[in-house]
Specification:
Blueprint lengths: L10 E9 L4 E8 L5 E7 L3 E3 L5 E3 L2 H9 L9 H17 L4 E3 H15 L1 H11 L5 H16 L5
Parallel strand pairs: 4-6
Antiparallel strand pairs: 1-2, 2-3, 4-5
Helix pairs in contact: 1-2, 2-3, 3-4
The chain binds zinc ion.
């Protein structure tokens, strides 16, 4: 990264901020030769590989639309959905990978959705994990009961 004023290659970072809800990082730099200040933006792309093998950019809107159906009639607000989608994106980005399987996004949705609303979670999981028998529901509900009886993490 060279200085846009004098092309010197050495600069120091004077300020770092997350921008775009954590999707990119903005750094304020100062050239160590001419002392000019300039800003750089680093963003990492995140692509989703679909079952068909094609890929597309990760989209929070798609996470939200996928979860919204499961939340129909439940006390879940648009803000809740937006927060959930942000959490899902942050968790996926933590893995450090630039590409993620569509299936893994479904997995990343399950835990925060369970925190948000257990009924919506069961609906989503039933489609996503293709529950096809009463036993599948019972197993999942038993798991929820176990979780509910554990002390909450602070
Ligand atoms: Zn310079």
């Amino acid at each position: 990264m060279h200085c846009p004023y004098c092309r010197h290659t050495d600069s120091r970072v004077v300020d770092t901020r997350a921008a775009d809800d954590g999707g990119s990082i903005r750094r304020r730099r100062q050239c160590s030769k001419c002392n000019s200040r300039f800003t750089t933006v680093e963003s990492t792309s995140l692509n989703v590989i679909k079952r068909s093998g094609t890929s597309e950019p990760f989209s929070r809107a798609k996470v939200i639309s996928g979860v919204r159906k499961a939340c129909h009639g439940r006390p879940v607000t648009e803000d809740d959905l937006a927060q959930l989608a942000q959490l899902v994106e942050e968790n996926i980005r933590l893995s450090g990978s630039a590409e993620v399987d569509a299936h893994d996004i479904g997995l990343a949705i399950l835990a925060p959705l369970r925190e948000l609303d257990v009924v919506a979670y069961l609906r989503f999981a039933s489609v996503y994990q293709s529950f096809n028998s009463l036993e599948d529901f019972e197993a999942s509900i038993a798991e929820l009961r176990t979780l509910a009886s554990e002390p909450l993490e602070s």
